[in-house]
Q: What sequence folds into this?
């Protein structure tokens, strides 16, 4: 099943022919909308599944052109993120695990707009990622039990502002858990959607293709099999540092070889095999300009371990 929120936060099921309103079918467990409705669905799915199966088979779908899709989890309690979690197509060995938090109020949904702040930054990067949705609360999870806590999957983009380095400074000291990442937590910096697909419908989340395009031109193109640390290991790792609850999410990291600048007026699309896809827009009130296409300098820096992403990039205007 693919669960969505639409219009005023109404819960629905996404089918090929559109969206089915399931608010009446789930009244036995919730009359809420938005985040709380989705949490109730996740918590009580086994209880309400017969009603959902019935309406999924017989319900009349609302056309996508008549509905405004929202982020399926508009304000999760926690947005957990893995950092440096890919081998960059085999160029890097698996290093020490590390991660961080994005602010929960950074989420936007399909068709939304990422607004670039006026801060002095080197570059704004898009990072396409498979996102896990937790179905149970947990802390200090064992790797072998990790998937017992996963409800499903969705698509996410970790928008990142690369900050200028202080003159004379080197890379930051390694920290396994870095807490809230301010330069990744500006409002609108966590596009998420279009639906939560239950884990039974994804054959192997460790082997799905991820693509990101900008104005129709492909940039990111990788497979989750390139992860340096598996999904199960990632769940176990983050749970050592942060407890999580129903409806919290985990961004699993990205391959940096397809990163590029985000700039005013662009339309960005993420697609993940078996999971779905959506588009969003970019607005920069300052109208700054960077070279278009893949940021090859950053790709090389990350591939060779010679610097952080976007370390030397500056806007052209």
A:
């Amino acid at each position: 099943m693919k669960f969505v929120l639409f219009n005023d936060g109404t819960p629905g099921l996404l089918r090929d022919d559109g969206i089915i309103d399931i608010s009446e079918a789930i009244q036995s467990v919730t009359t809420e909308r938005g985040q709380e409705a989705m949490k109730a669905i996740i918590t009580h799915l086994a209880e309400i599944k017969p009603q959902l199966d019935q309406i999924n088979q017989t319900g009349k779908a609302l056309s996508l052109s008549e509905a405004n899709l929202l982020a399926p989890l508009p304000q999760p309690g926690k947005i957990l993120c893995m950092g440096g979690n890919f081998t960059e197509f085999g160029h890097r060995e698996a290093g020490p695990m590390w991660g961080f938090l994005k602010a929960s109020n950074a989420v936007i949904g399909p068709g939304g707009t990422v607004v670039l702040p006026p801060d002095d930054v080197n570059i704004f990067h898009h990072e396409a990622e498979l996102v896990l949705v937790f179905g149970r609360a947990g802390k200090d999870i064992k790797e072998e039990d990790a998937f017992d806590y996963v409800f499903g999957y969705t698509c996410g983009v970790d928008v990142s502002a690369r900050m200028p380095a202080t003159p004379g400074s080197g890379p930051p000291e390694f920290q396994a858990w870095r807490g809230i990442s301010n330069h990744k937590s500006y409002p609108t910096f966590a596009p998420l959607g279009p639906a939560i697909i239950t884990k039974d419908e994804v054959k192997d989340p460790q082997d799905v293709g991820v693509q990101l395009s900008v104005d129709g031109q492909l940039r990111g193109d990788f497979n989750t099999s390139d992860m340096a640390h598996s999904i199960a290991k990632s769940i176990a790792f983050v749970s050592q540092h942060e407890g999580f609850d129903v409806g919290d999410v985990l961004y699993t990291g990205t391959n940096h070889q397809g990163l590029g600048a985000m700039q005013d007026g662009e339309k960005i699309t993420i697609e993940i095999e078996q999971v779905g896809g959506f588009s969003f827009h970019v607005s920069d009130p300052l109208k700054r300009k960077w070279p278009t296409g893949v940021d090859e300098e950053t790709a090389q820096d990350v591939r060779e371990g010679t610097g952080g992403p976007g370390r030397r990039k500056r806007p052209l205007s």
DSSP finds four helices and 19 strands in the chain. Residues 2-69 form one domain. The chain has two domains: 2-69, 79-304.
